[in-house]
Input
Amino acid sequence: MKAPDVVLNNEGRIYHLNLAPGDVAETIILVGDPARATIISGFFDSIEYQGMNREMQTYTGIYRGKRMSVMSSGMGTDNIEIVVNELDALFNIDFKTRNLKEEKTKLNLIRVGTSGALQAEIPVFQSYLVSEYGLGMDGLLYFYEQGPFVMEREMTSSFINQMDYDNYLPKPYAVRASSFLIEKLAGEWRRGITLTAPGFYAPQGRELRLQVSDNSLVERASKYKYNGFRVTNFEMETSALYALSAMLGHHAMTVCDIIANRVTGDFSPDYKSSMKNLIGQVLDRIAEKL
Output
């Protein structure tokens, strides 16, 4: 691979993450907010590495005997695209020769985030939802040659048809979570289809000074059904996480704390304590099951 493809800084560390091989564990919790990465690291029994570059805050340590890392990605599928590719490079590319390693390492990438529900019956306090599928409206998957091979084609087509999806918007795509992580970690948590939007305002039907081009999107998405699953929530990262992980051979799963309901207008009055409870559950399940 050429130097402009495997971009390293002057210290030989991967460019955006500013990390070297060995700095992160094979099990990595991904969060959007750097402050949340710091909160999660506070649960660790010990910390062996801490570093930050841009919005990527990284901690690696031990929790109940299990080595794991937590990293903030910032918001959006574009950030996830950088983070997942560079995490993979840390394990599967030889930085000295810029060649792929013969033996590949599989990573466990568990995203812990916040989200807004799209079904009226989903509560907003200590309500945790696993994304069985990520349904992307960002179009990222189509930039990769391997994309069609990991996409849930039937689900993608049914979403486009049921939604009467506008041709001028980025083409949607659906990717399933890792069945391995779902089996190990999901437990009793609610499951559904997570709609990943390429923005917080208009792509999710919000208006400030600018009007959205389609104010029926949220209502139409909430009515979509596929094989017993419904679109349960909106967020901004899962589709890219699932697509990239599947193409690279990694395991990925998202679990979100539902802090708002777009249908009922409810908002959690104490989402910080709810998130802290979710973090504890995620860490315990990782330590016990992975």
Q: What stands out?
A: The chain has eight helices and 13 strands. The helical segments are 34-41, 77-92, 147-150, 153-163, 179-186, 217-222, 238-248, 271-289. Residues 271-289 form the longest helix (19 residues).
